[in-house]
Amino acid sequence: xxxxxxxxxxxxxxxxxxxxxxxxxxxxxxxxxxxxxxxxxxxxxxxxxxxxxxxxxxxxxxxxxxxxxxxxxxxxxxxxxxxxxxxxxxxxxxxxxxxxxxxxxxxxxxxxxxxxxxxxxxxxxxxxxxxxxxxxxxxxxxxxxxxxxxxxxxxxxxxxxxxxxxxxxxxxxxxxxxxxxxxxxxxxxxxxxxxxxxxxxxxxxxxxxxxxxxxxxxxxxxxxxxxxxxxxxxxxxxxxxxxxxxxxxxxxxxxxxxxxxxxxxxxxxxxxxxxxxxxxxxxxxxxxxxxxxxxxxxxxxxxxxxxxxxxxxxxxxxxxxxxxxxxxxxxxxxxxxxxxxxxxxxxxxxxxxxxxxxxxxxxxxxxxxxxxxxxxxxxxxxxxxxxxxxxxxxxxx
Length: 397
Fold this sequence. Notes:
The protein is built from 13 helices and no strands. By secondary structure, it is an all-alpha fold. It has two domains: 1-184, MFS general substrate transporter like domains (Growth Hormone, Chain: A, Up-down Bundle); 199-387, Up-down Bundle (Growth Hormone, Chain: A).
């Protein structure tokens, strides 16, 4: 697969970012967990992170109306450097304040990076460059998700967390350097401002788009439930960093197997989506008996399910979104991110009340996540059906 020089630089940016985000997703959460083995601490960290992510995403989208993605990626790199400086030197008696301060620059990193990714989708979304970029980016992500956990597990064993924080500055420096050479993508040349005509009724102006709202809200709930408890289940199985890394490699490998089956078996999108939601549902139910093998099995099932969900769900939504102009796509994606994050934040607030992997609160949240997961095929099917009906009507005009 041939890609242009600009796309190669974007892929290098993607690789450096993925290494940093994968490290944070596993080992910073583990670093916070190890102190008190508290679900509350990890949940609080992720809650602050997603609140800042939502704010940074909106701010980043606004900045792209005047500046380019280069500024956003530089801000991501600077925020990353600040994160590892704080992790290396900041010590506070107030545990929640310390977690909050650590989470703030990480939320800014992810929010700004998501904004940059969205505008990249808008610009490259209808060309061959887009296909090349995201195909190779997917492979890079899978390789990193296998190699990164094991590599950093050994590094932390040899030189401790402080040594791994120091090493992360190398990838931050690579990201900062690449930011000067990536394509300067911007919305500044668009004929109208991003935040004009931003009301829900104006952006989601027809049926297939409107079905995205409940779909994103439901997705945000079960995505956050799975994302947080997948970590906690793994941390509960073992405190050994290498074992935790190997479990994450197992989850990544199961995704690769799921991807191979998806490509080889000629099955409709709706069937794959239903299979994904059934895997996720089974994975949500297994922790009702919180034994180590079942917790691992739960994560394998939900990881495979998330692959099928993400592939079909995102493809269907982007198929609708890609019919719009770049500025319209940016507005839709901004609302989409807000819906997802509102649901994520709501779920995290509810998870704050979970003390252990049992009890009425935990079971109630499983039921809530399960209902949201099983509603996704219905929302997605309705959106796709409305879109398919709209296309022939437009062609006949």
